[in-house]
Write a structure and sequence with these properties.
The protein is α/β, with parallel strands linked by helices and 345 residues long. The chain has two domains: 158 residues, Periplasmic binding protein-like II (D-Maltodextrin-Binding Protein, domain 2), CATH 3.40.190.10; 149 residues, Periplasmic binding protein-like II (D-Maltodextrin-Binding Protein, domain 2), CATH 3.40.190. The protein contains twelve helices and eleven strands. Strands 1, 2, 3, 4, 5, 6, 7, 8, 9, 10 and 11 form an eleven-stranded mixed beta sheet that branches. Helix 2 runs antiparallel to helix 10 and helix 4 packs across helix 12. The longest helix has 20 residues. It is globular, with a radius of gyration of 24 Å.
Length: 345
């Protein structure tokens, strides 16, 4: 076999050329932000309210890494020891955002790097998790068939609602918090919640795999009442579905969706630009108008129809946040209980 002899200097020169693209990059390549997010409407609204109108003019290219929340959390954990991870921004619900912060996976928020952080409502502030949007857990009902809707969680146990109550099975943990809040005033008192959940299940509880499955069930009359986030009732109303939301008299659990900055984010400069952009009043107003979620900043004033739809009743209902430090410890155990006694019970 004949081997082609290539001078060592030529080999080194060729290697340098092959390596050059990874060393010498266009200046704009640095302005890139990878956002780990959910898909669907949320991803679309990120593009329409943050990526294109705010960051694109600044020369920031946003790349969406779409997937479910659990694998996204697992990816952060798996990449913890790497000097550079794969995400600049990671989207989470508040419980997982808290977990990631406690696990040392996240950068501490810095108002100097993202000035709009100063506008976050005090009751939503967390040192490691940026609240993007939030909503409240309410009793949903069909106003065409229900003239006297339930006033609290306990009313759902009334035999008159037998076979007419519906919930999303993936939100079982949140339903347990609602039951606990009614039973003891503490959303984390799961021992008090379990008997109520079993009674609700015995009353003919309907379980649906996805949130959007509830709207057709309300419209067809398969169910008449349920528990869901207020934002969904607004979206369904605007889509022509007969559904309204009522705040439970014992208080309403908050659901907060937000974003976090991984400690090993590839490009911290563009990351903080993204954090600042997501808190811009225009971006917050856009999500309110199209998804029915409330702004998390104090300077995003709502007007017109959406302001009327999202206005709190008078007197303002009690808004309750769970103790994330506790709920993250017991969530797996409570989910297992739900699966065995409700989902497959």
């Amino acid at each position: 076999m004949h081997r082609l002899k290539v001078p060592r200097r030529t080999l080194l020169g060729g290697a340098a050329l092959l390596a050059a693209p990874s060393i010498i990059r266009p200046a704009r390549a640095a302005e890139r932000c990878v956002v780990g997010t959910w898909g669907g409407d949320y991803a679309r609204l990120l593009r329409e309210n943050i990526d294109d109108p705010i960051l694109k003019p600044q020369g920031v290219e946003v790349v969406q890494d779409i997937g479910d929340e659990a694998p996204r959390f697992a990816k952060l954990v798996a990449q913890k020891m790497l000097p550079r991870g794969s995400m600049d921004i990671a989207c989470f619900g508040a419980p997982n955002g808290f977990r990631a912060g406690q696990a040392g996976l996240l950068e501490k928020l810095d108002r100097a790097k993202a000035p709009n952080l100063k506008n976050i409502s005090d009751f939503l502030w967390n040192d490691y998790f940026v609240p993007h949007i939030y909503s409240t857990q309410v009793i949903a009902f069909n106003p065409q068939t229900v003239s006297d809707p339930p006033k609290n969680f306990g009313d759902l146990l009334d035999p008159k609602w037998k076979g007419k109550v519906g919930v999303v099975t993936t939100a079982g943990f949140w339903l347990m918090m609602a039951a606990a809040l009614y039973a003891s005033g503490n959303p984390d008192d799961f021992d008090k919640a379990k008997p109520l959940i079993l009674k609700l299940n015995d009353n003919g509880l309907h379980l649906y795999p996805e949130t959007d499955n509830l709207a057709p069930a309300f419209k067809s009359g398969e169910i008449e009442v349920g528990m869901i986030w207020f934002a969904r009732t607004v979206m369904w109303q605007n889509a022509g579905f007969p559904v309204q939301g009522r705040y439970p008299s014992e208080g309403s659990i908050l659901y907060v969706s937000g974003m976090a900055v991984p400690k090993n984010a590839p490009d911290k400069d563009t990351t903080w630009k993204y954090v600042d952009a997501m808190l811009e009043p225009s971006a917050q107003q856009g999500f309110a108008a199209h998804m029915g979620y409330l702004p998390t900043v104090t300077d995003a004033k709502l007007t017109g129809k959406i302001a009327e739809q999202l206005a709190f009743p008078n007197p303002k209902p009690k808004l309750v946040q769970p103790d994330y430090a506790y709920t993250t410890k017991v969530q797996a155990e409570m989910q297992d209980w739900w699966d065995k006694n409700v989902q497959h019970g």
